Amino acid sequence: MQTMKVAQPRPMSAEETYDTLARSYDDLTSANNYELWLGELLLPELERRGLSLGSALDAGCGTGRAFEPLLRRGWDVVGCDVSAGMLAEARRKFPAVPSSTVDLRELPVLGAFDLVLSLNDVVNYLTEDGELERAVGAMAANLAPGGFLLFDANTVALFQRTYTPLAAAGGTYETAIEGPGVEARHRQRHFTEEELRLAIEAAGLEGIALLGQEESPIGIELHESVDQERDQKVVCIGRKPDRRT
């Protein structure tokens, strides 16, 4: 008997995935409250560590969901993303915010920013060895002396909930998003706390903190240590040394 092989769909790149999702993205993520998350939780946490108001680069800005909390608080904002489709939506909503199409792995120096942020699991799309280190190093190169880097990564618990119950530390997983006019595949890699810390250290940053972000129906809470079963995200913080002082 002849055996037939069924072709598996080619993994979509992050660019292809988000070009496909661009027009539906804000509806799909409408439950994500960036004012609460960034404006009322993450920015105050950074301010407690020494962040001052200034300029911000949103690396992997998508449709600009993080722009509004920053602009409302007086930040000068620049955005970049690998997806031209997502940037088109960001420019439509925030025409005064400069933005450019850039692959995070090849991020050039766009300025000297007081804050570089990359939110909502952008780094988890860096699935090949060495890509996390390249991206974190490139983001750190855009920091002014004393500036802060802020990004998040998904925990094992979140991978088990959204990809497969069998997800484990360090694995790479795929899932499909299907709906009216939407068909895309997400491919992400889980990073351990050690991998995240080493990438930040390799970028020459100090004051490193890895915080556990626990999410529940009643709110979002940050913990000083990460629990991969309790938390949904690891919030990563580093600061560029200020040699002027």
Short recap of the structure:
By secondary structure, the chain is α/β, with parallel strands linked by helices.
Describe this structure in words.
The chain is α/β, with parallel strands linked by helices and 245 residues long. It has a single domain (14-239), classed as 3-Layer(aba) Sandwich (Rossmann fold), CATH 3.40.50.150. 30% of the residues lie in helices and 29% in strands. It has seven helices and ten strands. It has helices spanning 14-28, 34-48, 67-72, 84-93, 131-140, 156-162, 193-202; strands spanning 55-59, 76-81, 99-101, 113-118, 143-154, 172-179, 182-189, 206-216, 219-223, 233-239. An eight-stranded mixed beta sheet has the order 3-2-1-4-5-10-8-9. It has a two-stranded antiparallel ribbon with strand order 6-7. Helix 1 runs parallel beside helix 4 (84-93). It starts with 13 loop residues before the first helix and ends in a 6-residue tail after the last strand. Mean pLDDT is 90; it is low at 1-8.
Low-confidence stretches: 1-8
Structural class: alpha/beta
- CATH fold-type name: Rossmann fold
**What is the level 1 CATH name?**
Alpha Beta
Question: Strand content of the residues, in percent?
Answer: 25-35%
- Biggest beta sheet attributes: 8 strands, mixed
Give the helices and strands as they follow along the chain. Answer: HHEHEHEEHEHEEHEEE
**What is the H level of CATH, i.e. the homologous superfamily?**
Vaccinia Virus protein VP39
Please tally the β strands and state the result. Answer: 10
Envelope shape: globular
Q: Which sequence of strands runs across the widest sheet?
A: 3-2-1-4-5-10-8-9
* Average pLDDT level: 90
- Counted up, domains total 1
Please give the count of helices: 7
Task: Using the 3D structure, state the CATH architecture.
Answer: 3-Layer(aba) Sandwich
Distance between the termini: 76 Å
